[in-house]
Amino acid sequence: MALRSAPLLLLALVKVVLRENCFGASSHSMKYFSSSISEPSQGQPHFVSVGYVDGQVFVHYDSNSRREQPRVSWMEKVGKEDPQYWDRETQRERGTEEEFKESLESLRLRYNQSEEPPEVTMSSRTEVEDGMETHICRVDGFYPREIEASWTRDGEVWLQDTLRGAVAPNADGTFHAWLSIQIDPKERGRYLCHVEHDGLQEPLDVALKEPKSNLGIIIGCVVAGLVSVFAIVGTLAFIYIPKRRQDDHNATPSELSSLQVISNLKQGPEAPSVERK
Fold first, then answer.
1. What tens digit of pLDDT does each residue of 238-276 get?
2. Through-space distance between the first and last CA atoms of the chain, rounded to whole angstroms
3. Which residues contact 58 (CB under 8 A, 6 or more apart)?
4. CA 3: distance to chain centroid?
5. Which of 5, 47, 54, 92 meets the CB 3.0–4.6 Å disulfide criterion with 36?
């Protein structure tokens, strides 16, 4: 599961009970400080209750020990005088622990803070300059925020030639992140995008994809360019040819006569007819 150094999203409840007692001219105070957190660090209790008298800790209870215990010597006498005292106090603290647990669960559901596993997608491209491949691993839609995502090479974490984006929130309360790497295409099979998160039952490893060929894009651009050229030529021909025909149709009689003379000259003089007797 995900490696966690400290909880990034923390729901906490705190309750302080203050009791003051006056005895003659002097007064004393007794306080109970109770707290509960949703995601404690490893080994830490999720519920703790501590009692103070005049600022001194005299009793302690936590969810790991599940037992209220004295913290000063004079409180040990209470157990001897009343054998059921520590059992009653322990049951009271356990009840408070359950109340806090239910309250935290209600808060989590109210703010839609359940575990949504990450969706991992991969995109790739080939650099024109040197033929190297750039691969981008995108991790999206996960909650809680804490996540471990890294590149591995032959099963080992690989940091060389890598970039990483910060974990950022989505509009729906989930989070997204990305990381990229540049590699030699011949070594593509040695790399994986490794993801660990509380929403995953087990770590996820995603293989790199072969970048799509740019040949189709190039052919498409060439075809589009030829179509544009043909369209321009066709448009000019459509405008120019009808205009020539219209100009010939609108010629004046004198212009038509001149055209006829020129045509006759091109054909040569008409041969004289010979009358035979």
1. 665 555 555 555 555 555 455 454 455 445 555 454 444
2. 127
3. 51, 52, 70, 71, 72, 75
4. 19
5. 47
Show Cβ contacts of residue 117 under 8 Å, excluding neighbours closer than 6 positions.
142, 197, 199, 200
8 Å CB contact between 217 and 128: no
Q: 């359950």: which residue's tokens?
A: 98
Residue 241, H or E segment:
helix 215-249
What are the tokens at 14? 């705190």
Q: Are 141 and 167 in contact (CB under 8 A)?
A: no
Q: In what order do the strands lie in the sheet with 204-207?
A: 156-157, 148-153, 191-196, 204-207
Euclidean distance between CA atoms 90 and 61, whole angstroms: 8
**Helices 85-110 & 73-81, crossing angle to 10 degrees?**
110
Question: pLDDT tens digit string along 13-58?
Answer: 665 555 544 444 568 889 999 998 877 777 889 899 999 999 999 9
Long-range contacts of 265-273 (CB under 8 A, 24+ apart): none
Tell which residue, 225, 244, 2, has the closest CA to residue 117. 2
Query: From CA 33, how far away is CA 49, in angstroms rounded?
Result: 6
How far is 14 from 180, CA to CA, in rounded Å? 42
Is residue 56 within 8 Å of residue 82, measured between CB atoms?
no
Beta strands (DSSP E) in the chain are 12-23, 26-37, 47-53, 56-62, 69-70, 119-126, 133-142, 148-153, 156-157, 162-164, 168-169, 175-183, 191-196, 204-207
Question: Is residue 103 within 8 Å of residue 159, measured between CB atoms?
Answer: no
